[in-house]
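Researcher: Please translate sequence to structure tokens.
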Amino acid sequence: MCGIVGVIGRGPVNQLLYDSLLLLQHRGQDAAGIATSQGNQFNMYKAHGLVRDVFRTRNMRSLPGTSGVGQVRYPTAGSSASEEEAQPFYVNAPFGIMFAHNGNLTNWRELRESLYRVDRRHINTNSDSEVLLNVLAHELQSSANGVSLDDDAIFRAVSAVHKRVRGAYAVVAQISGYGLLAFRDPNGIRPLCIGRMETDEGVEWMVASESVALEGSGFVFVRDVEPGEAVFVDLDGRFVSRQCADNPQLVPCIFEYVYFARPDSLIDGVSVYDARLRMGEYLADKVARNMRLGDIDVVMPIPDSSRPAAMQLAARLNLDYREGLIKNRYVGRTFIMPGQAVRRKSVRQKLNAIGMEFKGKNVLLVDDSIVRGTTSREIVDMARAAGANKVYFASAAPPVRFPNVYGIDMPTQSELIATGRSDEEIARAIGADSLIYQDLSDMQQSVRDLNPKMQRFEASCFDGEYVTGDITAEYLARLGQSRAEPGQDEGASGLQFNMGYAANDA
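Model: Translation complete:
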């Protein structure tokens, strides 16, 4: 899971890209990068760390230009710790392209082999994003017949990409001398939206993973990029779009609404905050069916993403709502952190209990989901240590029982606490007196209530159904093996590039 942004501006865009990445920081905390275009040159800086730590004044000054792309990176299983895999990526032939990608390709190994043997392109990392960039570059070359690009050639290239590539991908790409290209996979698994700003110098355009990046930067949200659609904005601000997939369908990742997206974002016509409120309502109904409400003294969220669901659950059941866990916002998400030991230590650093809210009470803790169970177990122990009489646990999402292959780092079933366990066994494993999971149908209906056009969701980590149709047991076994392989040593400094090239004729 990553956050991406692309801008065509009327003035310098380095600060605009930086501010947008800050608003998308929740989507990736491993690395950050910005690339801008000025005349015949790309300028790029990227490094490991949070946006605020990666970029210094000297880095920002080295990023002149009125257009560019940026990314915050969340590494998936098997990816390297090397800074070469931080994005944006660059390719210089046949057109200079700066490229940022959110998602995960399921056939990237086959594509890499094809690029080497057939297309004669060299891939320098183990990143599926570099593979996708080179597929795009090759198809642009084929569509342009080696001469120059026009709208038709660009959209033909994206159509060819859709035919070759499988998996989840939302892309922003700056093409030298031409403009900004953005497109979304034919299933619309990963989000991507468009914003517009009127200035005295002309129209500015932004494409980003979430609407919060647009609105927080002063842009007006226009719409989402449709599944399979490509949009292109040239350097003069001319906007064109085209459907480039044969059979597009909207099958968004439901985990965006459960956990990853910011609550103030709007994704595919659905307010993330409203979706979480509705999840709380459906969860409340299940709690009422399965527990004696008189046994619950207080409802508490596990901050932050479960707060809307917990508030709505408490209101619907007429139970007291309290904030008994305080979050240290300067510790990263434990879901993203590698290694059980690191995650367990981080939970205690990230959350602290207010003893008076727990002492002598029967507490219903509400979380957005339970993945590995490490955080849940530590929080239950924390509640008991703070004096709770009984600790009940409710999850706004169903049991996570299957690997995700579309960009969420939970690839092996052995890491998932729900694998091979009943709800009662999971409750014992996390130390809770009782555990209630949201039903999958109710979670999906929570989102569908807000946009009835959504008939399907990418919910493979809950139901094991993979929308791309190419996931086999062998694939999952290979993915699990790649996760077990040790990564490379992390570099100590960022990567700075200034790339000159001859401007292409528009």
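Researcher: Any highlights?
Model: The mean pLDDT is 90.
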